[in-house]
Design brief:
alpha/beta; Rossmann fold; 5 domains; six-stranded mixed sheet; globular
Length: about 750
């Protein structure tokens, strides 16, 4: 796969991303009410004195009365930032903020970045050690070797909370998981394999130590650095950490060491491994080429020489990505939940085996669907789980917590592991995972998406982001000045964008005939159809979709939703047997609610309400949720009575007759549908929990509710999503920003919003 397959973006786009709105990527949000004087009195003075005195008497209560138990510090001095080198503590802050975001996104761990302006290991150690009362765990990051070894070991000895240098152990744990499965597939035993490690930095040494702890014979491991094999007796370029892995061997070069080797672990530099070296390895060699950003050898290069090999890299555009995000959030999650005093070898090994075992299980439907249904099953090209597999949150923390308890470092043992697994499952909203997977699917199966209003700057920025993000090919509709506008936005090659101008497109004659064939019996003359094709961007864009020139379409920022929809429907029909409608998706930290119909049908009939319920339930399932549908009304089961309840009750009866596979109930008021305390007053209700699909009784209430929640609510809002059309079309709001347009384009292209 070429470099063009990788996710790309401009420097300007990256800077805009980090500076737009609130600068940076994190913020502090209050977790308790602060609305009244009483709230303030409880939060600070005098109420705060009560937990202060309690903690003074029993320090363990800090985990009960403060955020300590779910708070990790991400700490660096900037001496080894990514692959950029020593750029200083301040320059490392964007990376540390990013790490903090990953902790929250993947494992619901609160994290704060701390950048220490010192390269003195002792000063660094003292500074971090003094922070122990504040945090439940310490994640060290981007610290150069050998100082990182000294710092981590000293802090683990001094502190009674989990400390881990992820650059070392994260890579080690994920690569170990992959090795377990690679050995399983190739019929090898860990105790017998011959391993060559190329690289002798922090990650390489950590990988070597971990696989030895897991059963690889120390005598079967050869480590190499820039000067060749690290062998017993070598003097040049040695230190105590390298010496610990010096081998008894006659080999002096990487090429010599690889003869007959089963496994290559590369943590060195691009191009370090050649095809002729691989030829000399054992049958079905296992190659982990983990150099970043470019591996020691690419999978196509390796397979060209040895088709029988298994290859893993650190890149997302190749199978078997060794990605640290599979490990560190969940390891800390498990360690925090049992209040572990350290992260030991047993916990790391447990994490590796949990990740390995997960890859052997069937891929869940929502993950496979988001990857276009083509995510590989366990085998040569799938030895490591997908990074966004939602099951990681359940299996890895549970394994780590169990290992902590078994090894005696847990101070708060979990009594019911089944209940703990359920609580882990509930901590994260699956919508966030599925949206990420939708982006991955779009990148894996790129589609042609029409951006109908490409003369608008916000649309062009969205189109640029869509293409540079590897999500597909934007097809731009606009006049002759679009390329100049692209250049003004920092695009170096505007000629590479596909632009259609309806005034001189060779497709116009065919488009006119298609449109005239549809509208001639609705009062339209041929010349009127010509005018519409030449002047109406939504008509022109819809016809591109109709003719198969593109796969999906996005519009909406220059005209009202209703007007855009009317123009689209002059060209495109509803899907056979379906009712077109709109969905707003409200996404909170721990919930997702689907509202429909919020955009299309003014007063839906009973049959349309039933169709809307079925189709919204299908969208909810594609986004990882088991639907519980509530037909909303001002009335709850007839109280108060009124004149508009008939269609809702009939819709419920229609679903009864269809035998659908999801929960549904109605009519009911929103508070009853969403509040379990109120729902208990209706023990006959068929909903097992709060509703997550709200079928609205009419467009007026639905649209007003959606817009009020978008402007005043605390949730993120996705949409409106248009479903039920013959072709994937999304109509954004006029106030949409570029990010929202890209999300809608991805949802259309990935098959989630159909």
């Amino acid at each position: 796969m070429s470099d063009e397959a990788r996710v790309q973006f401009s420097d300007r786009e990256a800077l805009i991303y980090h500076s737009t709105g609130r600068p940076g990527k994190i913020e502090i949000v209050a977790s308790k009410p602060m609305a009244t004087q009483r709230d303030l009195s409880l939060a600070y003075s005098p109420g705060v004195a009560v937990p202060v005195l309690a903690i003074a008497d029993d320090p363990a209560l800090a985990y009960d009365y403060t955020a300590k138990g779910n708070l990790v510090a991400v700490i660096s001095n900037g001496t080894a930032i990514l692959g950029l080198g020593n750029l200083g503590a301040l320059a490392s802050k964007p990376v540390m903020e990013g790490k903090a975001v990953l902790f929250k996104r993947f494992a619901d761990v609160d994290a704060i970045d701390l950048e220490l302006a010192t390269e003195d290991p002792d000063a660094f150690i003292n500074a971090v050690a003094l922070l122990e009362p504040s945090f439940g765990g310490i994640n060290l990051e981007d610290i150069k070797a050998p100082e990182c070894f000294i710092i981590e070991q000293a802090l683990k000895e001094r502190m009674k909370i989990p400390v881990m240098h992820d650059d070392q152990h994260g890579t080690a744990i994920i690569s170990a998981a992959g090795l377990i499965n690679a050995c399983e597939i190739t019929g090898r035993n860990l105790g017998d394999v011959k391993v060559v490690v190329n690289g002798a930095g922090a990650a390489a040494i950590a990988c070597t130590e971990l696989i030895k702890a897991m059963g690889v014979s120390p005598g079967n491991v050869i480590m190499c650095d820039r000067k060749g094999v690290i062998y017993q007796g070598r003097q040049e370029g040695m230190d105590q950490w390298k010496s610990a892995h010096a081998a008894i061997t006659e080999a002096r070069t990487l090429e010599e060491a690889l003869v007959g080797a089963d496994i290559f672990l590369g943590l060195s530099a691009a191009g370090a491994l050649r095809g002729d070296m691989i030829e000399k390895m054992a049958t079905r060699p296992i190659i982990f080429a983990m150099a970043n950003p470019d591996p020691e050898i690419t999978p196509p290069e390796a397979k060209a020489v040895r088709p029988d090999c298994i290859v893993a890299t650190g890149r997302s555009d190749y199978p078997n990505q060794v990605n640290n995000v599979l490990g560190f959030p969940f390891i800390f999650r498990g360690a925090l939940d049992v209040r572990a005093t350290t992260i030991n070898e047993e916990m790391k090994i447990a994490a590796a085996y949990a990740i390995a075992e997960l890859a052997r299980e069937a891929v869940p439907e929502e993950v496979a669907a988001a990857y276009g249904g083509q995510l590989a099953s366990f085998g040569q090209d799938y030895i490591i789980p997908a990074p966004f597999d939602p099951r990681l949150m359940e299996v890895v923390p549970a394994a780590v917590a169990q290992a902590a308890m078994d090894s005696g470092v847990a101070t708060k043992p979990i009594l019911d592991m089944d209940e703990y697994r359920m609580s882990l499952r509930a901590r994260l909203n699956p919508t966030t995972s599925v949206l990420t997977l939708a982006y991955d699917n779009a990148r894996a199966h790129p589609k042609r998406v029409v951006f109908a209003e490409a003369e608008e700057e916000v649309v062009l920025r969205a189109a640029i982001a869509f293409r540079d993000g590897g999500c597909g090919t934007p097809v731009l509709i606009g006049r002759d000045d679009v390329r100049e506008k692209l250049r003004a936005l920092g695009v170096d090659d505007p000629e590479s964008f596909e632009i259609h101008n309806s005034r001189h497109s060779p497709l116009v004659p065919a488009m006119v005939e298609i449109l005239y064939g549809r509208l001639q019996r609705r009062g339209y003359l041929h010349r009127e159809c010509e005018r519409l094709v030449n002047t109406d961007r939504n008509i022109f864009a819809s016809l591109l979709l109709k003719m198969g020139e593109a796969d999906a379409m996005i519009t909406g920022v220059t005209r009202t939703y209703g007007q855009s929809l009317r123009e689209v429907r002059r060209v495109l029909d509803q899907a056979e047997g379906r009712t077109p409608f709109g969905i707003h998706v409200l996404v909170g930290q721990s919930h997702t609610v689907f509202m429909a119909d919020t955009t299309v049908n003014e007063r839906p009939s009973a049959a349309e309400l039933a169709d809307i319920a079925e189709q919204t339930a299908a969208v909810a399932r594609r986004m990882g949720h088991e639907p519980r549908v509530a037909f909303l009304s001002y009335s709850t089961f007839g109280n108060p009575s009124g004149n508009w309840l008939g269609p809702i009750r009939d819709a419920v009866e229609i679903l009864d007759s269809r035998g659908v596979s999801f929960e549904y109930e109605g009519e009911m008021a929103p508070d009853v549908a969403l509040n379990p305390k109120l729902m208990v007053n209706y023990p006959f209700s068929r909903l097992s929990g709060p509703a997550n699909v709200l079928v609205m009784p009419g467009l007026q209430s639905a649209n007003l509710s959606a817009k009020l929640l978008r402007e005043l609510g605390g949730d993120s809002v996705i949409g409106p999503m248009l479903v039920g059309m013959e072709k994937p079309v999304q109509i954004a709001t006029m106030a949409s920003n570029a990010s929202e347009l890209v999300t809608l384009a991805v949802l259309a292209a990935s098959g989630i919003a159909l």
